[in-house]
Amino acid sequence: VLLNLFVLSTTSSGGNFTEEFSLPPVLLCELLAVIYTKKCGESLRESGEAEHPPLYAAVYGFCFMYLALIRITNAALICGIVGAVLVVLIATKKWNNLLRNMAGFLIGAALCFAPVALYFLAKGAFGEMLYGTFVFPFMYSNDGVTNRIASTWMSILYYIGPALSGFFAALIYGRKKEPY
After folding, report:
1. How do residues 57-95 score in pLDDT, each as one tens digit?
2. Range 45-51 average pLDDT
3. Dihedral (CA of 172, 173, 177, 180) sign
């Protein structure tokens, strides 16, 4: 977590940037993922099962929507974490736990989105909010996309790399008999 705090804080340049407002929820989700990874490795070793707490998924959903409302690309690390949890739950065939986590994620996202949506609905600007938050960034990012393919892959590795490294560390940690 501290290493990623250092890496993600390199975007800090004087204050009041979206990346700086994105650090607390990203690091909270990363901390929960590390806690889950440790518990997952221990429980896989002991019983072969890997339950993921739906409350963690609700936190992921809330933080994802918070970041999506600021700038959608800032939520990439959380997408990596959710993807890693999804793979583990599918691999261990925990279908009920997967459904509970999906519901938790959606509830968390709705808890964050509802007040913002109600505000913009009350002001008669809901369509503009959706356009400015979700549609325009994708249109903006698609301009000149053929010139930025390598840059895009580097960005994907930059944001999803920490989550994937944690996932692979969990796999390695979970297979060891004596972790220390």
Report:
1. 999 999 999 999 988 888 888 999 999 899 888 888 889
2. 73
3. positive
Q: How far apart are CA 3 and CA 171, in angstroms?
A: 20
Looking at per-residue confidence, does 120 or 169 come out higher? 120
Q: With contact defined as beta carbons under 8 Å apart, do 159 and 77 qualify?
A: yes
Residue 111 identity: L
Please give the Cα distance from 63 to 3 (Å, whole number). Answer: 20
- Dig out the tokens for 99 from the structure: 């459904």
How does DSSP classify residue 134? I
Question: What b-and-e string marks burial along 49-86, b requiring 16 or more CB atoms within 10 Å of the CB?
Answer: ebbbbbebbbbbbbbbbbbbbbebbbbbbbbbbbebbe
User: pTM of the predicted model, to two decimals?
Assistant: 0.71
